[in-house]
Amino acid sequence: MTTAAALRSNTSCRFAGSGSNDKTVGNVDGSNQFWSGSNGSRCSTYSGAAAWSFTGDGRLTPTLGGRPVSLQLDGLTSA
């Protein structure tokens, strides 16, 4: 059995091109800001290319425009 993740306080931005709206499946509420034809107000905080690397102990380190960003994973379970 797989349990759907609760998606909270997520932000989706696009800085080049266009496309279809984000698709969400599961437990989603109004705290999220997903792509729906244009960037929302939270996107002004982010600029630059997305990149990632791994630290020596194996942790994922994501960056946007060379600035580190944090990952928050809540409620992800599977069986």
Task: Summarize the helices and strands and which ones pair or pack.
Elements: E1 6-7, E2 27-28, E3 50-54, E4 60-64, E5 67-68
Parallel strand pairs: 1-2
Antiparallel strand pairs: 3-4, 4-5
End-to-end separation:
5 Å
Strands ordered across the widest β-sheet: 3-4-5
* Main beta-sheet strand count, sense and barrel state: 3 strands, antiparallel
Could you tell me the number of beta strands?
A: 5
Low-confidence stretches: none
With helices defined by DSSP (H or I, 4 residues minimum), what is the helix count?
A: 0
Overall SS class: mainly beta
Structure report:
It contains no helices and five strands. The protein has a three-stranded antiparallel β-sheet, with no helix packed on it. It has 79 residues and is mainly beta. The model has no long low-confidence stretch (mean pLDDT 78).
Short description:
The protein has no helices and 5 strands. The protein has 79 residues and is mainly β. A 3-stranded antiparallel β-sheet has the order 3-4-5, with no helix packed on it. Strands 1-2 form a two-stranded parallel ribbon.
Tag the structure with descriptive keywords:
20% strand; 5 strands; two-stranded parallel sheet; three-stranded antiparallel sheet; 79 residues; mainly beta
